[in-house]
Design a protein that fits this description.
Layout: E1 11-15, H1 19-33, E2 40-45, H2 50-59, E3 63-67, H3 75-82, E4 88-91, H4 98-107, E5 111-114, H5 136-147, E6 159-160, H6 169-187, H7 195-207, H8 210-217, E7 221-227, H9 247-255, E8 257-261, E9 273-275, E10 285-291, E11 296-301, E12 304-309, H10 314-322, E13 325-326, E14 335-337, E15 340-346
Parallel strand pairs: 1-2, 1-4, 2-3, 4-5, 5-6, 7-15
Antiparallel strand pairs: 8-10, 9-10, 11-12, 13-14
Helix pairs in contact: 6-7, 6-8, 7-8
Amino acid sequence: FFLKVDSSSRRLLVIGYGSVSQCTLPLLIDCFLLKKQIHSLTIIDVIDQRARIEPYHKIYNQINYQQEEITVKNYGEILGKYLSDGDILLDLAVNLETRCLLKWCHDHKVCFVNTSVELWDPFGEAYKNDPRLLTLYHRQMQLIQMQNEPTWNKNGATAVLDHGCNPGLVSHFVKRALIDMAQCVVNDKKILISPGEKTDLQKALKTKNYPRLAYLLDIKAIHISERDTQLTNDPKKVNEFVNTWSIDGLAEEAVAPAEMGWGTHEKIVPEGAFFHDEKEGPCNQICLATKGMNTWVRSWVPSGEIIGMVIRHGEAYGISKYLTVHSNDENNNAALYRPTVHYAYLPSDSTI
């Protein structure tokens, strides 16, 4: 983090106290509060969560809770009450526009962390006639455009966006998998490779050049496969929608267009596919005219084969972009290699 203030006065503000935030609070206590990396921890939520936070407050008087609703009209005022130069904002809520929070934190030298790229009203764009405007790729391009503005200070406070356990942790799993696979190819005498290929892999391993490793290993596709096996003893009612992690989050993502990182090896374009404008970004993804919940793909998890939904996923963008290898020649730095990357999500039985 880009933190200049002494930790004895540093404040951490957490927005939201849903299921993710409730799991995160013990980690924040262990990693920040008890190690004296922060002076205080404040949680705000639109719902009254005092009963759930009170047990922590009794032990740690540095933990505070405020019930407030953050909107497009008051977010600056509310953030200004709890944060200043060198503090940290952790956004674990839904429907708080990432661009606005990022811009505010950047302008006020506040470090910013969140787990998804959000809008104030995600369903307000639902009637746009171009599916590409409803994608996470489009939101990423808006963030890049904001950072390319002349007034943007390149040496501002650190921000880590779209990076939690999911999305976020998969990127680390991919790096570990590439190292394991490359080491296996190099060390297993049963795998026949030329001396030159072995040298290239060893060099990429030494420098931790992950795009090069994926290219040399000829990785064609990466599935972010997930099967939710959680059960409930409270059956859902007729016409009721339930979910294990976020009602609003899944409802928004499920009806959005299916998105995927598009591999350079792909020869057949899916029906209803849309490509992005080459002038406006890396074009590492495509989207489909069909909703994510109506787009199914065969995949695998440790418990066996699944048929999962190609619901959009932040790391379908991030991993495919990161692992792209460019030709680095006069051909406009064209993509020489990129794997196909997408989500394959099978929700819980109750959700379906």
